Amino acid sequence: MKKRIFAVLLAACTVMSLAACGSSSDDAASSESTDSAEATDSGETGDASAVETVTEGKLTVATSPDFAPYEFYAIDEDGNPTLSGFDMDLAQYIADYMGLELEIVTVDFDGVLSELQTKSVDLGMAGLSPDEKRESIMDFSDIYYMGGQSLVTVKDNADKYNSFEAINKSDVTVGAQTGSIQLDLANENTPDADIVSLPKVTDIISELISGKMDAAYIETVVAESYQKNYPELEIVMEVPYDTEGSAIGVCKDNPELLAAVNEAIAAATEDGSLDDFIAKATDLAAGQTYEGLLDESGNVQ
Ligand code: ARG
User: Residue 257: CB partners within 8 Å, gap ≥ 6?
Assistant: First the structure.
């Protein structure tokens, strides 16, 4: 079967990074996606494998693991930080779907944007909002997850910092992640606040808890996730945002890759894998083994 796919693809394409379907992997998510890969590759088009990537045979994905349950470090049984989250499981699924080996590059969130801009990676999977200001530096996949935005503070200040009016003052420190749409929301809704941008959401959480920061704009599901481990956090209000949902950032001008990513997202949605990844990541992020704060290099301690 491998040979047949190669032959078909080589006939169809001149310069391509190729890999046949069915790359082996031992986790449950991967074996499910292997089924999908076979289903697609043995189907009419086989297009999912006909993609050019930055490194032949690999799918290189940038992420910023400070964003549970999308991506974060969980501590495994041996005490080692392990890259986890539903974006990471979906990345593995997509790589398997295309018959490519997955390679993850971890950077701060603004680094995910620049890796895509410089075409150093194939995909950015970091709970990315398909913001139209980013359309000149990346293409966006279909939305794979819907989520909203929130204003977050700590329980002790929940009565004090509970509206835009309450925080829109120069003596109120309001945080958002560097390069994120949350920073735009901070600037749009509370321009008079002392707005501080930090490279990691986990830094923002620790500053909120230590009292260095009064409030922050954070995606709701992410705030809820950190709240399970840091119950002093309080979500005080929902923040309206017109482009809801998360998409995968795809290296620009690679329509075959974009199409294959969308096909894989549809398959993961249809076969229930994505729901499983979300449930698993949500549990893992809230579990005893999870820690995600305070290490300056971005790893858990
Ligand atoms: N959704 C927001 C954006 O696209 C924030 C994403 C932050 N992601 C992360 N892994 N820290 O701007």
Answer: 51, 52, 53, 122, 123, 250, 251
